[in-house]
Amino acid sequence: MSTLIESTAQASPRRTYSRWASLVVLCAGTLMTILDGNIVTVAMPAIQSDLGFSGPGLAWVVNAYLIPFGGLLLLVGRLGDLVGRRRMFAAGLAVFTAASVLCGVATSQGVLIAARAAQGVGGAMTSAVVLGMLVALFPEPREQARAIAVFSAVGAAGGALGTFLGGALTQALNWHWIFLINLPIGVVAWLAALRVLAPESGAGLGKGADYPGAALVTGALMLTVYVIVGSGDRGPTVTLLLGALALALFVAFTVRQARAARPLLRLRLFGSRMLSGANAVQVLMIATMYGFQFIGALYLQRVLGYDELTTGTAFLPAPIAIGVLMLGLSARSIGRFGAYRVLLAGLALIVAGMALLSRAPVHGSYVTDVLPPLLLLAAGFAAAMPALTGLAMSGAREEDAGLASGLFNTTQVVGGSLGLAVLSTLAASHTDGLLGRGAELVPATAEGYQLAFRVATALAAGALALAAVVLRSRTEQARN
C-alpha cells in the first residue's frame, strides 16, 4: 500500500506539469493567430505602397484572412472531435506557419492575398479546437477557471500586442517581418504540440461527417463574413441580396441537420441556454472591443497625430492590465463570486469605458482622455472574457466540446467583423456628412469617431442587459 501511495504521489506532479505544459502550447498557438489578426493593421499603408494596392483592394489583405477563418471554424471544430483535436491543432499550426512564410516573401498582390487566405485556414484549424482541449485538460471547476483566465489573458493581450509589434517591426525593419516572425514561433509550437499534448484518436470520420451540411454551413458563414467585411464597398441592394443568400444557406443547413442521420451540428446544442446566450453576448461584446481597437487607433493617428509606433505604444497599458488582472484576480473572483456576477461587473466596466471615450475631443490628451477609458476597458474585458468562456463551455457536453469551441470562436469572428464594419461605416459616413457641410477635416473626423464610440457604448449596454437576463442560473436566483 505504501508503495502505491508513493508512486501516486510521484506521478501526480508529472500529470500536473503535463497539463499546464499543454496549456502553454495551446496559448502559444493561439497567440500566434491572434497577433496576426492585429499586427497587419498598422502595416497596411506600407503594404499598399510597396505592392501597389488600391484602396478597395487593400481591404482584401484583411478580408482574405477573415473569410476562411470565420467560415471554417465550425466545420474544423467538428472535424477535430472526429479525427482528434491534437491532430487538428498540430496540422493547423503547420498550415499557418507555412502560409506566414509565403506572406513574408510575397512580392505581388495575388501571392499575398492567397497566402493570407491559407493563413485563415490554418488559423481556423488551430483556434477551433483549443477550448475543447482546455476544458478536457482541466475538468475541475477551480483549475478550469484558472486555465481559462490564462488562456484569455494571452488572447486579449495578443490583440493589443499585435498593434504594437506591427508598428515596431514595420518601422524598424519592413512589413515582411510582421509575417516572418511567425516562423520561429510556429515551429517551436508545432514541435511542442507533438511532444507535450496527449494523443487522442477521436470518434472517427464515420461518426458525424455530414459533408453536404458542412458545405452549406461553411458557405453560409463565409458569405456572412464577406457581406459584413465588404458592406462599405457595395451598394445596399447587393448587400441585402448577399445577406438573403447567406440566410437561405443557414436555413437549408438547419433543415439538413434536423433530418441527417449523422448531423455536423447537433441542434440540441442550441437548447443550452448558457451556450446560446453566451455566444449572443459575445457577439455584442467583441463588436464593441474590436471597434474600439480599430477606431481608437484611427483617433490617435488622425486626430491626435500619432505615428504608427507611438500608436502601438499607447495601447500597451491594455495588455499589461489584462494580463495582470486575468492571471491575478480573474480566477479567484470567479471562484468566489461566480462567473455570472464577474461577467456583469466586467461588462459594466466596458460600458463605462466606452461612454468616456464617446467624448474624445479634437485637442485631446492621452493621459486624461485616452488612458482612463483604456484601463476601464482592459479591466472589464479581463473580468468578462474568462467568465463568459466558462459559461459558454459549461453548456456543452464532452463529446461536443470541439464543436462548441468552434462555435464560440465563430461568434468572435462574426462579432469582430460586425463591429468593424458597422462602427467604421458610421464614423466615415458622419465625417463625410460634416465635411459636405463645410466642417474642417480633423474636427469632423473626431465627431465621426465620437458617434462610433456612442454606438459601441450602446452595444456594450445591450450585452450587459442580455447577460443579466439570459445567463442568470438557478443558483444565482437562489442567492438572491
Automatic annotation (TrEMBL):
InterPro entries named among the record's database cross-references: MFS, MFS_dom, MFS_trans_sf
Domain Major facilitator superfamily (MFS) profile: 22-475
Domain of life the protein comes from: Bacteria
Key word Zinc present: no
Membrane-spanning residues: 20-46, 58-76, 88-107, 113-136, 148-169, 175-197, 209-229, 235-255, 276-300, 312-331, 338-358, 370-392, 413-431, 451-471
Alphabetical UniProt keywords: Antibiotic resistance, Cell membrane, Membrane, Transmembrane, Transmembrane helix, Transport
Gene3D superfamilies found in the cross-reference section: MFS general substrate transporter like domains, Multidrug resistance protein D
Lipid bilayer topology: Multi-pass membrane protein
Compartment(s): Cell membrane
Keyword set includes Cell membrane: yes
PANTHER family, per database record: BLR6921 PROTEIN, MAJOR FACILITATOR SUPERFAMILY MULTIDRUG TRANSPORTER MFSC
Protein name: MFS transporter
